[in-house]
Design brief:
The complex is a heterodimer. Chain A is built from 13 helices and no strands. Chain A is mostly helical. Chain A has helices spanning 3-26, 34-41, 47-82, 94-108, 123-141, 149-173, 176-186, 195-222, 226-231, 236-258, 264-276, 280-304, 313-334. The two termini of chain A are 30 Å apart. By secondary structure, chain B is mainly α. Chain B has 15 helices and no strands. Chain B is globular. The two termini of chain B are 31 Å apart. The chains are: A mainly alpha, B mainly alpha.
Chain lengths: 336, 328
């Protein structure tokens, strides 16, 4: 790859993300021109613009970017571990498992006055625990089938159906004041984003990136088959487990703030492969950028397509992602 | 086993009768009998003949139809995981109805039913095209993955339509959730006989399905036109699913679980499997519907949730089964 070529391959997605950032901030109940958005970014805008941009619009934009990056990275990790591009974390029961965690959390820790008895900051932890429990059960079911992602995904679908049914029953069982809180969360709440949420998600993402750097040699080996990978002398199994765990934590964190946004973890790593090839290092850099751009773009579409109504962001990613998944599946079948 | 069939008939009748007695309030048999034979217009009579009887018929008929639909798909696709919910056929019917209602402004029951049939048929055709296109390289698990993805795609389109059209949301959200309670009476009494006829019609294909199970070459040697049979049987299967959706909305997992239990009881001969599957499907739907009324009293659980709680473990055990492992 020439220097100019690689510059374009990383530069173009970055530039696209930047443009989407400005566009996403410009759009809202009132249009703020890109020049004013940039001025507000730099702290030189008018007072109203600055308040709208920094307290109302940017938290949502930041959350979309961070959630997209986290989901994409989770997908890359999972696809590397199972060595198959059709795997993605959102179908492993993680999303609905997180919902079970959240509903249980709201059920246990809310009082008669419809208020939480503990800080809302514990919610992501509850989501992660729920996601982890369901991901673990999928992993246990698929034990020995780890190299057969189709099977893995089907277990995920079964567990997701189970989790959905559990959520429905829990929501009905719980008194109405708990249920309404649960429903607000389940519907996805990007529009009610706060900087606090973005900060937590950013922390998780940063920690995951550090872990990723430590895991990099092992993950690069995983691109080989198991035997050659073992021959390199690196301990593959603990690295695999760590990577899977990291994938679950990233998905759960994203889902607990942004709701169920499907197929990003599937598309972003594949798109990165198309742009920069199979090398793990380059893909690890590009995948989160593409994921962030995807979710941000989907969020913009979700806001403008049916304006003034807002579509769930996940429907947009599903409408793009589902056909892409079918394409990947079909290509894999064709090539045996 | 010779006693299986009478036992299943008894079970189905028992559950059907039970579903007339059980609800938020329990009614004595004498009250139920009086409500059915000599309705006095009182609250009990209204509840039993006006609410519970249609609900019982809906659960029984739709359960049987979905079970048989699943069995037919499993037979001609040679895939033990095939069923209208997992293959996206229910989602196709639902999307077509929502599209006709929200975008085309169709509201007549007959027209909406035709759209449901067209939607179910189109989804079934897409799945079959995938099977043909893969030229035998498609494992059962991969086909179900494709079906589930198709269902997710159609569900997203449906969601876009109902979010952008508040009127559609109000009219169709309840129906879209799936279930047997409070269904449109006129629709039920018009469609239920069709479903019964469809289930009966399926019995005609039993011999050909047995021949098909031995492999396409053998089936052709036995004089079965495999292409025509596949087309007819899948058309019948998607019709049963589409009409079920018209009555009850999308209801999953019955079509997966009922044929599976029937096979455990009666082996592989379709002449034996078809009636058993119909009865088991009806029993599962009736039992799930009764359970939905009682598990979270005084609320009512959606029957789709109770069915998922039964169906998901069955799906897992099927994916893990040795037969499927060999096929994959």
């Amino acid at each position: 790859m020439t220097l100019a070529g690689s510059g374009a391959r990383f530069g173009l997605p970055l530039a696209a993300l930047g443009l989407l950032l400005i566009l996403a901030t410009a759009i809202g109940s009132s249009w703020i021109g890109p020049d004013r958005v940039v001025a507000a970014f730099l702290g030189r805008g008018s007072e109203t613009d600055t308040i709208i941009v920094w307290t109302l619009r940017l938290p949502r934009v930041a959350l979309a970017v961070l959630a997209g990056a986290a989901l994409a990275l989770a997908g890359l990790l999972l696809q590397t571990v199972v060595r198959n591009p059709i795997a993605s974390p959102s179908v492993l029961g993680v999303v609905d498992g997180a919902a079970v965690g959240v509903v249980l959390f709201l059920w246990i820790y809310s009082n008669e006055a419809n208020a939480l008895t503990v800080s809302i900051h514990w919610l992501p932890l509850a989501a992660t625990l729920g996601a982890g429990a369901f991901a673990l059960s999928v992993a246990l079911l698929a034990k020995g089938d780890i190299s057969q992602p189709a099977r893995l995904i089907l277990y995920g679908i079964a567990m997701a159906a189970l989790a959905k049914a559990l959520v429905t029953v829990l929501v009905i069982l719980g008194p109405v004041y708990r249920a309404s809180q649960a429903l607000i969360w389940l519907a996805g709440s990007v529009h009610a984003a706060h900087w606090d949420d973005a900060a937590i998600l950013a922390t998780v993402l940063a920690a995951a990136l550090l872990a990723l750097i430590a895991l990099r040699p092992a993950l690069e080996q995983m691109a080989l088959d198991d035997a050659s990978a073992a021959a390199t002398g690196l301990a593959i199994t603990p690295a695999k487990a760590t990577a899977l765990g990291l994938s679950v934590v990233l998905t759960a964190a994203a889902v607990s703030f942004a709701g169920g946004i499907a197929f990003v973890g599937l598309i972003a790593p594949n798109a990165a492969r198309a742009l920069v090839g199979a090398g793990f290092g380059a893909r690890a850099v590009l995948t989160p950028i593409l994921g962030a751009a995807m979710v941000l773009g989907a969020d913009i579409l979700a806001r403008v397509v049916a304006y003034p109504l807002e579509l769930p962001t996940g429907t947009i990613t599903a409408l793009v992602g589902a056909p892409y998944f079918l394409f990947l599946l079909f290509r894999q079948i064709r090539h045996g | 086993m010779r006693w299986h069939l009478p036992a299943l008939v008894l079970l189905t009748v028992f559950l059907a009768v039970l579903s007339l007695h059980v609800g938020l309030r329990l009614h004595a048999p004498a009250t139920v009998w009086a409500a059915l034979t000599a309705p006095d217009g009182g609250a009990d009579a209204l509840i039993i003949s006006g609410l519970r009887l249609p609900r019982m018929v809906a659960a029984g008929v739709v359960g049987a139809a979905l079970g048989v639909s699943g069995l037919l798909m499993q037979a001609v696709l040679r895939n033990p995981l095939a069923e209208p919910g997992l293959l996206g056929v229910n989602a196709g019917a639902s999307f077509a109805v929502v599209f006709a209602f929200a975008v085309l402004g169709v509201s007549g029951f007959l027209a909406l039913s035709l759209f449901a049939l067209a939607g179910a048929g189109a989804a079934m055709a897409a799945i079959f095209a995938l099977v043909l296109g893969a030229r035998g390289a498609l494992t059962p698990v991969s086909l179900v993955l494709a079906g589930v993805t198709l269902a997710a795609f159609l569900a997203s389109l449906t969601q876009v339509l109902i979010v952008t059209d508040e009127g559609t949301m109000e009219s169709l959200l309840f129906w879209l959730a799936g279930g047997f309670a409070d269904r449109d009476g006129a629709v039920l009494w018009a469609v239920a006989p069709l479903l019964v006829a469809g289930v009966a019609l399926a019995a005609l294909s039993a011999g050909a399905l047995d021949a098909m199970a031995t492999g396409d070459a053998t089936a052709r040697a036995l004089g079965v036109d495999t292409g025509r049979l596949r087309f007819l049987v899948l058309a019948l299967a998607s019709t049963l699913a589409g009409l079920s959706v018209v009555i009850a909305g999308p209801v999953g997992f019955v079509g997966l679980v009922a044929p599976h239990i029937a096979r455990l009881m009666a082996g592989v001969a379709h002449a034996r499997l078809l009636p058993r599957t119909a009865l088991i499907g009806a029993s599962i739907a009736l039992a799930a519907d009764i359970a939905a009324r009682r598990v979270v009293v005084p609320q009512e659980a959606p029957v789709t949730a109770t069915l998922a709680l039964i169906g998901a473990p069955v799906l897992v055990s099927l994916v893990r089964s040795r037969r499927l492992r060999a096929a994959a």
